[in-house]
Amino acid sequence: MGLAVERCPSPACATSAGAPTPDLSCDEASIHCYNDEAISCDPSVRRLKSQKRRAAEARLAERACVLMGLAAPPSPAPPLPCPPLPAPHSAADDEVCVLACSDCPPVAAPLWCGMDVKLPAIDWAAAFASRHSPLISDAPTGASYLLPGALPVILVEQASALPQALEALRASMRDEVLGIDLEWRPCFTASAAEGSRVALMQLASSHLCVLVRLCCMGKTFPHCLRSLLSDPSLVIVGYAWDGADEKRMQCSYGLGRNLFQRYFDVQAVSESLGYHGLGLISLARRVLQCDASKSKRITMSNWEARKLGCSQIRYAALDAYLTGHLFRSLRLWHGSPSACLTCASALGKVWYGSFPA
C-alpha cells in the first residue's frame, strides 16, 4: 500500500515552522477499519458476528414484520468467508521505504535527502539490553555472530577472508547507505597517541555488520576495502568523523574523507533538523527512544587484543548499525507526512512496503 502526501509548498511554512518532535513508531503504518461487521487495527482481521447473534436478529426482524403486517424480511446474507492466511513474513514487510526528497531546493552539493532509503524495524531495546552475542559459526570468511534484535555480525581477522565478507555486505544492502565507525587502542600519553593506529573498522548495512580487524592485516590498507569505500554508488555515513576518526585514518594510512565519493555526517544532518550539540547516544535517545548507553570500560578496552571479547564485538557492531539507522530515521522524519506547524497542511512523502514503479 502506498501513502503519498505532498510537502507544504509555502516558503513561509518552511522557514517559520519549528522542528516537530519525531514519532518514528512502527505503528504509524497501522490502519483502522470500522464497519458493521468488524472493528480491527488490521484490515486482514475481521471479527464476524456469531451465528447465534445473527439468528436472534433474524427472528426479531421476522417478528416485527408479522406484527406490522409487512412481508417477511429477506433472508440474511451468508456469513463472510474467513480471511485468507497471511503471506509468509519477509524482511521487506518490516521496512519503511522513504523516497528521495523532491521538495528541497537544488544546490551544488549533493543533498543528504536526495536518495531513497529503507528503514528496517529493529528492536533496539533488546539489542542494547542484552550483554550476549552468541557465536553462530566460525567459517573461513570470519566468525559470525547474531546480536539480540536479529542483527548479524561477521568478524574478519584475515586479509584473505575480507573480499568474501565484503561481498556478503554488498549483497545485504537494501539501499545505498553504509554506516562506518573506527576503534583503536586507547592512548594515555601524547607520544602513544601519535603511534596508535586504527585497530578495527566497522561497516554496516541495514541488515549486516562487518567488523574488519585492520590491526591483524599489516600496515597496508586492503585494496578490496579501498574499492568499497570509494564506490560512487554508495553513501558512506559516519558520526562526527572529521574529528578523531579522520585524524586516526590519516595517521594510519594517509586516507580519510578523500576516499569517500559520497559522504554524509549524521551529526551535521541532525543539526540541520534542530538537534544541536548531541552525541550519538543522546541523539539515539531523542530519535529512537532507546537507551544506547556505553560502558566506559569497553570504550577504553584494548582493541588490538589477540581476541576480541563478546562485549567488544557487540559494542562495535551496534555503533555502526546505529549510525546508519539514525541517518535513515532522520530521513523518515524529514519526509514523513507530519502536519505543518503554520498552516496544518500535510508535509512530506512516504511509501510503505515498496517503492512505486
Automatic annotation (TrEMBL):
<dbReference type="InterPro" id="IPR012337">
    <property type="entry name" value="RNaseH-like_sf"/>
</dbReference>
<feature type="region of interest" description="Disordered">
    <location>
        <begin position="1"/>
        <end position="21"/>
    </location>
</feature>
<keyword id="KW-0378">Hydrolase</keyword>
<dbReference type="Pfam" id="PF01612">
    <property type="entry name" value="DNA_pol_A_exo1"/>
</dbReference>
<protein>
    <recommendedName>
        <fullName>3'-5' exonuclease domain-containing protein</fullName>
    </recommendedName>
</protein>
<keyword id="KW-0540">Nuclease</keyword>
<dbReference type="GO" id="GO:0005634">
    <property type="term" value="C:nucleus"/>
</dbReference>
<feature type="domain" description="3'-5' exonuclease">
    <location>
        <begin position="156"/>
        <end position="331"/>
    </location>
</feature>
<dbReference type="GO" id="GO:0003676">
    <property type="term" value="F:nucleic acid binding"/>
</dbReference>
<dbReference type="GO" id="GO:0005737">
    <property type="term" value="C:cytoplasm"/>
</dbReference>
<dbReference type="GO" id="GO:0006139">
    <property type="term" value="P:nucleobase-containing compound metabolic process"/>
</dbReference>
<dbReference type="InterPro" id="IPR051132">
    <property type="entry name" value="3-5_Exonuclease_domain"/>
</dbReference>
<dbReference type="InterPro" id="IPR036397">
    <property type="entry name" value="RNaseH_sf"/>
</dbReference>
<dbReference type="GO" id="GO:0008408">
    <property type="term" value="F:3'-5' exonuclease activity"/>
</dbReference>
<dbReference type="InterPro" id="IPR002562">
    <property type="entry name" value="3'-5'_exonuclease_dom"/>
</dbReference>
